[in-house]
Specification:
mainly beta; SH3 type barrels; six-stranded antiparallel beta sheet; 8% helix
Length: 126
């Protein structure tokens, strides 16, 4: 039986603020949302470093597939953080807010900012 994933209130492209963890207070744009693990990847937040070794191609067929030899060094990329550690930033005030829902005039469900009652989906240009 397939496990149902939870609907999340934060979406790709939203501006969020980190409210817990080592990057508390930082803001960024959500790049990716993992609904199954309830995690988000935020641009410029939770940067993980991976030290890699330079690996030349082992034979000619590998060299043909990889035109450039991988250079070693430290690779930085954003790591996923739990969705409970971020809060959506209200576009009107620039402060973190909770998210609520309301039915629009045309009958569709839209997200609103609980802090100042602003429609979040309209401000993103959807």
């Amino acid at each position: 039986m397939a496990r149902r994933t939870k609907a999340l209130k934060i979406r790709k492209g939203d501006t969020v603020m980190v409210i817990a963890g080592k990057d508390v207070g930082k803001r960024g744009v959500v790049e990716r949302v993992d609904r199954e693990r309830s995690r988000v990847v935020v641009e410029g937040v939770a940067i993980a470093k991976r030290h890699t070794k330079a690996r030349p191609p082992a034979n000619a067929s590998q060299a043909a597939r990889q035109p450039q030899a991988s250079t070693g060094g430290v690779i930085e990329k954003p790591a996923a953080i739990h969705i409970s550690n971020v809060a959506l930033v209200s576009p009107a005030t620039g402060k973190p807010t909770r998210v609520g829902y309301r039915l629009a005039e045309d009958g569709r469900k839209v997200r609103i900012s609980r802090r100042d009652d602003v429609d979040l989906d309209e401000t993103k240009g959807k």
